[in-house]
Amino acid sequence: MGDPETPPLTPVLVGPTGVGKTAVVAAWGALEPITVVSADARQTYRGLDIGTAKPPGELLARVPHVGLDVVEPGERYSAGRFASDAAAWLAGIRRAGRQPVVVGGTGFYVRALAEGLFHEPPLDPARRERLRAWTARLPAARLAHWAARLDRRFAGGGRQRAARAIEVALLTGRGLSWWQEHARAVGAMRPWYIHLTLPRDALERRIAERVDAMLAAGLVDEVRRTLGRPVAPDSSGLDGVGYREVVAMLAGRLPERGLRDAIVVATRRYAKRQETWFRHQLRDGGRGTGEGSVWTLDAVEAPEVLAARIVDRWHNVTPPSSPIPRPV
Fold first, then answer.
1. pLDDT per residue over 152-205, tens digit each?
2. Which of 82, 154, 224, 255 has the fewest CB atoms within 10 Å around its CB?
3. What is the tens place of the pLDDT at every residue in 93-105?
């Protein structure tokens, strides 16, 4: 079985929102017993199903998923907590004799699981609390501005990540990106990346179709139910793409007739940021032939074709001496 201290090689399916990851997973699950570890920060929130494009019930019944519905809207769920939870999920999946597949579009979650997180230096609790109170009062755009000023490599990612970048920079004197680069721990897996891509026009068509489907499925009512629980309009989860536009519309800050286009534009921008992250932050080995390498696949092909190619390549990459344990 190899060195027990060496994390197992694990397939990691990444790509921007709307590229077709869920369809590939559905086809992959028809070929071998896989369990998906969701690395999507938006899908961790209970009750936020439509706007986060959670997999349909039929697929969840056929292909087990973990990492969905972990916390309530408004609760903080960090990349560090995800990495800790996902390490336990990966071990449990392997013990059950199934193949884990990490799937998602949240690059920081993927990196935390693959490369570990930095060991945070001691932070003064009183200063930290005062800083959190200050950042909580800032608008999201202002938070992002200060995060980028304090850490030139800040890549965005919402209020929580911007506040975290500000906190670390001001309390340690160094940016969060510096700590991530110089003080990493050991990751819980060795990644084998499959990066799904699409030409821009094709991805934009899929995004528009997805937004139309979400609105038809009741995205606005989903937000109304969440606000009525009650959950604050700027809570974690509701500050994500799609939800914040609906919140703005319900508050009268966005005309109802402009909602669809506002979500489409915001989603396109989000997908572009994801693509930029995956292109520059993954450890690119070029051909997808082993640990840390990135195999880029054009998602214009049918999901069944893509899944068959992935499974074939995966079994060629995986050494025969280190199979996943079979169920007894």
1. 888 776 787 888 889 889 998 888 878 766 655 557 888 999 999 999 999 999
2. 255
3. 999 999 999 999 8
Q: What is the pLDDT of residues 37-85, one digit of tens each?
A: 999 999 999 999 999 999 999 999 999 999 999 999 988 888 888 998 9
Q: What is the CATH number that goes with domain 9-117+184-317?
A: 3.40.50.300
Three-state SS across the chain? CCCCCCCCEEEEEECCCCCCHHHHHHHHHCCCCEEEEECCHHHHECCCCCCCCCCCHHHHHHCCEECCCCECCCCCCCHHHHHHHHHHHHHHHHHCCCEEEEEECCHHHHHHHHHCCCCCCCCCHHHHHHHHHHHHHCCHHHHHHHHHHHCCCCCCCCHHHHHHHHHHHHHHCCCHHHHHHHCCCCCCCEEEEEEEECCHHHHHHHHHHHHHHHHHHCHHHHHHHHHCCCCCCCCCCCCCCCHHHHHHHHCCCCCHHHHHHHHHHHHHHHHHHHHHHHHHHCCCCCCCCCCCCEEEEECCCCHHHHHHHHHHHHHHHCCCCCCCCCCC
**Radius of gyration of the chain from its Cα atoms, rounded to whole angstroms:** 20
**219-227 vs 200-217: helix axis angle to the nearest 10?**
60
Where in the chain do CATH 3.40.50.300 domains reside? Answer: 9-117+184-317
